[in-house]
Design a protein that fits this description.
Blueprint lengths: L10 H14 L5 E7 L2 E8 L5 H7 L3 H19 L1
Antiparallel strand pairs: 1-2
Length: 81
């Protein structure tokens, strides 16, 4: 069984996650990576990710962050009209 733990994001992992999200057309995916020391590989990309373990590992409220993201997106749409 796997475990969830905090990971200090580096540019390579961030780029991988962002490009995967763009490729499959998702704004808020769950990108699961498997780590083995300094190496990692993609496990899966979820279009309906679960956040409970993620929230516990990093100490943020994911729904609140999604709300802020949506507000920024809506503000951008409204400013264009």
């Amino acid at each position: 069984m796997g475990a969830v733990s905090k990971f200090d994001l580096n540019p390579a992992v961030e780029c991988l996650a962002v490009e995967l999200a763009k490729t499959i057309g998702l704004d808020i995916p769950g990108v699961d990576l498997l780590f083995d020391g300094d190496n990692y590989q993609l496990c899966e990309v979820n279009y309906v990710p679960g956040f409970e373990s993620f929230e516990t590992a990093i100490g943020i409220k994911v729904p609140l962050e999604i709300y802020h993201y949506v507000q920024v997106q809506l503000d951008g749409v409204q400013s264009k009209t």
